[in-house]
Amino acid sequence: MDAPIIIFVLFIFGITNALIANSKHINPFLWFFCAGLFGTLMILILPSAKAVQKDKKKYENRQTIGNTVGFIIVGIEVVFLISYFAFFQFIWK
Predict the structure, then answer these.
(1) Which residues have CB under 8 Å from 31's CB, separation 6+?
(2) How far is the C-alpha of 33 from the C-alpha of 51, rounded, in Å?
(3) What is the structure's pLDDT at 67?
(4) Distances (CA, A) of 47 to 28, 33, 42, 56, 83
(5) 13, 35 in Cβ contact below 8 A?
(6) Helices marked H in 24-55 — which ranges?
(7) pLDDT one-digit tens code per residue, 66-87
(8) Is 34 helix (H, G, I), strand (E, B) or coil?
(9) What's the CA angle centered on 68, arms 83 and 17, to 5 degrees?
């Protein structure tokens, strides 16, 4: 698959994740970088902070959980991308 197609598909997943996260009152900028099917499935599974907006403690707790999960997924993706490029740039040659 060509790189521009992959980048376009990941961009679409990123926009989708950001829109879903925004509707759930979770950090959309963070979830934009959780591009891919795994990120989309995770954001769909996470509970909405918006649903408990009146209870401040539960609202903040759900936001924290959503943002923490997003941060972990971004970290895994960064490690994966570094490993992927290191393998194909240095070892595969």
Answers:
(1) 14, 17, 18, 20, 21, 39, 43, 70
(2) 24
(3) 93
(4) 15, 19, 10, 15, 32
(5) yes
(6) 28-32, 37-45
(7) 999 999 999 998 898 888 777 7
(8) coil
(9) 75
Structure tokens at 38: 């795994």
**Token pair of 25 as six digits:** 């009152």
The whole-angstrom separation of Cα 29 and Cα 70 is 10
Which amino acid, 79? Answer: V
Task: Supply the pTM of this predicted model.
Answer: 0.82
SS3 state at 64: helix
Q: Report how far residue 30's alpha carbon sits from residue 3's, in angstroms, rounded to the nearest whole number.
A: 23
Which residue, among 74, 72, 67, 68, has the nearest Cα to 26 in the 3D structure? 67
Under DSSP, the state recorded for 48 is P
